[in-house]
Amino acid sequence: MARIKGVDLPNEKSIWIALTSIYGIGQKLSKEILTNANIDMKKKAKDLTDDEVASIRKEIDKYMVEGDLRREVALNIKNKMEIGSYQGLRHKKGLPVRGQRTRTNARTRKGKGKTVANKKK
Q1: What pLDDT is recorded for position 119?
Q2: Cα dist. 52→44, 61, 69, 99 in Å?
Q3: CA 86 to mean position of chain CA atoms
Q4: CA 57, 58, 61, 63: dihedral to nearest 10 degrees?
Q5: For the residues 43-66, what does the mean pLDDT come to?
Q6: All structural domains of the chain
Q7: Rounded distance, CA 52 to CA 34, Å?
Q8: Is the dihedral of CA 72, 67, 78, 86 positive or negative?
Q9: pTM, full prediction
Q10: Neighbours of 14 (CB within 10 A)
Q11: What is the rounded CA–CA span in Å between residue 96 and residue 117?
């Protein structure tokens, strides 16, 4: 089992899909990393040699992923909340940040629906 940046890659998946389990690496970046490391994308994660894993690690070190990226995003959100920007206020209130409607939907951010008395008319 290959372990990169503190994440165990799923063994049975192709390596280009397995790399997407690392926070900050999507499909496009995964393919770019494998191309630069000269590794076949169809190869399973369990079939990688130690040299191939080392070359993937070396390529991934060029990008901000996992803990560093999570810390950066959290600091950006905290900064927006401190300066009192619109997005920061939405984060504080637990509402959608990017302009989505809130009259209906938005249950992911707002939580379970609350029943309001005498609403039916």
Answers
A1: 66
A2: 12, 14, 24, 44
A3: 23
A4: -100
A5: 93
A6: 3-66 (1.10.8.50), 88-121 (4.10.910.10)
A7: 10
A8: positive
A9: 0.79
A10: 17
A11: 25
